[in-house]
Amino acid sequence: MTLHQTGPAAPRPDSSTTPPLSPETADLLAELGGYLVPDPPALSLPPRAFASGELYELEREKVFGRSWLLVAHTDQLAAPGAYVALTVAGEPVVITRGDDGALHAMSPICRHRMMPVVEPGTGRTDRFTCPYHLWRYGLDGRLIGATFMRRNEAFDPAGCRLPQFAVEEWHGFVFVNLDPAAEALAPHLARIESDLVNYRLDDMVLAGEWAEEWHCNWKIAVENAHENYHVMGFHPETLEPSTPGRSDTDLRDDTPWALRFRIPFTEPQQPSLLSLTEDEKAHLYDFFVFPTGSLAAAGEAVIWLSMLPLSLDRTQVRGGMLVPAARVKDLGEAERKEMRQGIESYSAMVNAEDRRGLEAVQRSVGSRFAARGHLSPKEPAVVSFYRNLARALLRGDDEWPGAL
Ligand code: FES
Ligand SMILES: [Fe+2]
Hints:
Rieske Iron-sulfur Protein, disordered N terminus, Ring_hydroxy_dOase_asu_C_dom, 2Fe-2S, Rieske_2Fe-2S
């Protein structure tokens, strides 16, 4: 099912008022432009790209203000009244499932005096009541009650609604776009849709989930998710035995939105509930949806991750593991709980291995002696990510996305 928000939209930021860039940031963008040539250099990003507040502001506008962002799985928003609240590059966002089954995405900032009507997290409710002066909003963001406002004749309660964002579901994944003029998501993902047919995403259920905070710039988490080379260093006991870091990466990156890379398993998977090809049994299929979304199909499990900036140096890592519904349908409650705990504790262990390492990288970004480095042939998708980032940052306001 695909739903596209058509209600009153959040205003698009006016970039004509953006102050001119400092010479340092202009230089940084010029360096990023180096990834846009046909055969770009296999070099890591300049260290300033992870530490510049000015570049982060540009990313907020040009990347996070205009891209489809993976934020949840539909099972987290299954029941009427279910909500997921989070922060995307400093913008609070809440997604709800309305009583009519439709999804809504909106800014939870109260239209009175800016109190957030809900804090980041998940839950279920029939309305949002602002904690400050108790204005009440429905699940679609419309104002349904405001205390002691009748004598203000300039106030029109019927026209008062939380600013709306675009939201779509794609095979169970929930994406949000803060740009009210966003193009539909599905055509962007057409290139990877056929790759995922045999994994039957629509028949999968969320068997475990997590949301963690990592103290690093979002690009440090994202570039790490674009390569398997680090598995030998960060994951010697967890992932190295099944997908060793020495393996070659088979990359396909012919769209700016969704790239695919494959890593061979040391032992082919033996699925019993899915009909996978020999290639699918033999490989981890990793898909990356620019800028923050990752889907990893590994035999009968699909792991989704999204690495969403909270600030310049903090990132929320949201994710979950999907399994075929047939695998859990005959399980009792205790067995399901045990399965969930197993998945979540294993994921927490692997995530902690990445987090510890990447937080150490973050501590280096301000060093005077940090520098760009040469990349290995084992990390080709990292350059693809840099190129997609450069495209997004360097495009003009009228160049999204058709002209790219
Ligand atoms: S700020 Fe929300 S009711 Fe006043
Ligand atoms: Fe990792």
